[in-house]
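Worked Example 4.2. Consider the chain below.
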Amino acid sequence: MDTITVGKAELGFAVQRLLDENSRLVTAVCLDQEEHFVVKYFFHKDPDLVCLAVKVGKDEELPGISGLHLNAALIENEMKEFFGINITGIALDFGGRLLLCEDSPRAPLLKTQPETQTEG
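Applying the procedure from the previous section yields the following structure tokens:
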């Protein structure tokens, strides 16, 4: 599997290039590296997988790719809810309520929880 590291500004161009080459989005994951996130997008490009990796500071925005590939909208909503990563431009933004309810902990998969979150 090839891993291509891209910056936030190049992410959309890299995704579009893969889509133009008939690659299919398989999934994406968000890794909490404590000081920042690493988001990895996995594409099937026959016969291999290609991984696009982008580093995002916890106080930074990550442009969504769901405007280019609608299937990414669910993944982007999930990452936003579970990690609190600020993904912008999500084609179908569920406003933090795709999988979590109003009483759910905020960003439950963060390694370091926000100080304002209550235990429970």
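Residues 2-88 form a domain with the Beta Polymerase; domain 2 fold (CATH 3.30.460.80). The mean pLDDT is 93. Compare this with Example 4.1 before moving on.
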